Amino acid sequence: MTAKTVTLRPIGHVVGGRSEMYEDNWHDARAVIRLDGASFTTSTVLGLEHFSHLEIVFLFDRIDPATVNSRPRSPRGNPMAAPVGVFAHRGPYRPNRLGVSRCRLLTVDGLDVHVADLDALSGTPVLDIKPYLIEFAPRQPVTQPAWATELMARYY
């Protein structure tokens, strides 16, 4: 199968919140997702205010594509953690530099979607917004390695 090129256009960008990357304490980080007024109207967010949480797809635009490789590495560079493949962790150095975050919806004001707990930096291009539905939560118990629990203990 031949790989096809996919072109995505941001729907908006993150305003406010953090401007520099550091890995922990995203709890209550507040930001606005400002949708592109040239491409969208308020009809695109009609009904969004009825949801408590959103899933945000964004681009890790500050990551230089030349620095991305698929070799196994220790999560967050932790020498105590065994190396894992790029698809076995959630770091920003990914082949397509895509980030996915679940965050709390605070309010919708026109084309401004106010959120908390979004782990994306101010200026980050947003590619999609989806409401989080309970029915998409895992139906079976969730398991993960101990290193993931330890590394994420202070994330939110």
TrEMBL record:
Entry annotated with the keyword Nuclease: no
Transmembrane segment boundaries: none
GO biological process terms, semicolon-separated: methylation
Record keywords, A-Z: Methyltransferase, S-adenosyl-L-methionine, Transferase
GO molecular function, one term: methyltransferase activity
One Pfam short name: TrmO_N
InterPro entries: TrmO-like_N, YaeB-like, YaeB-like_sf, YaeB_N_sf
Domain TsaA-like: 8-141
Family stated for the protein in its record: Belongs to the tRNA methyltransferase O family.
PANTHER family (alphabetical): TRNA (ADENINE(37)-N6)-METHYLTRANSFERASE
Protein name: SAM-dependent methyltransferase
